[in-house]
M23 family metallopeptidase
Amino acid sequence: MSKISWKIWRTRCVRKTLACLGVIAWLGFSSCATQPGTPVCLAGATLDEGGQCVAQRAAVHYLPFREGYKTFVSQAFHGAQTHKGYDAFSVDFECEEGDPIVASRSGRVWDVREDSNHGCPDPVCGKDSNYVVIDHGDGTYSSYHHLRYLGAMVERGEEVCAGQVIGMCGSTGYATAPHLHFTLSDRVRTLPLRFVEGYHQKGNGVPIAKTQYVSENKLRSQCSVGQWSELGRGAFLHQGIELDRGVPLVLKPGSRTILSGRFFGDQPKIAVHRRSADSGTWISECVDKGPNGEFSVIIDWPALRFPSGRYRMMMTGADSACYEASWAWSYDVQVLP
């Protein structure tokens, strides 16, 4: 490598390092690199349409309990027991069986489960947790897990205000005792957040393990609830696909979605893959790309084929037979009644 090339390379490295350090200083977290296996930057940053990580401030929520309720954080971010991988930015709050759980922020109920009456102190029970998930309209979702049997107080599609009771504390799923497992996510990974009570009572909004807080989450009689979240134009950039417009994630049975954009890869087709969130075979639909990679595909959601429920969806390039497509994860789509 020549001296000039070395200087250019070194300068670029220094600039990237300083940019990364700037994100660390702003967010207070340990990395700003793109995490392997995900299409987006690490929690606390978003991927812009040019494929660059853009820092954003952590969201601020209220504690998910009624005003005046005292709770203890038994496990916080990166907890050694279970808060690893996808659950890295989760928070466990102590609560008694049947205690009310409230919305930490206004939104629309994305998903609900309350039919499980089973829990145990073993990861094998993880699939048995009851929960409520709220879509806040900005691409973030708060999740409330381990609710008691028949302990969800809301239904899918319902609008809720911050402070409104949405469920009851329990110990379903992977749990040793009643508690609330709370997360904020973008449905791909959990995100860091701050709590109003932390700022007021501790001088720092980050939830701290082995620390007590008193909820300041007042019930609101009225609130502004935005629209459902959508996938952005760059949601499939990791597959070489850029869309012309966002993609709705909540549909009615019989809906039709038009997906158009440009594919930058070498494969001759673009495929849209769908299946039930629970199980089943992937259904793939392919269209040819144009000479400049442009494409447009109509995706129907007939009620008999896609009844009310949750589905997985991904877009990829594909060969002439609509094969040779691969992906490690997928997005959730809700079909509401």
Notes: Confidence is low (pLDDT under 50) at residues 1-40. The first helix runs from residue 3 to 27. The two ends are 63 Å apart (CA to CA). DSSP finds two helices and 26 strands in the chain.
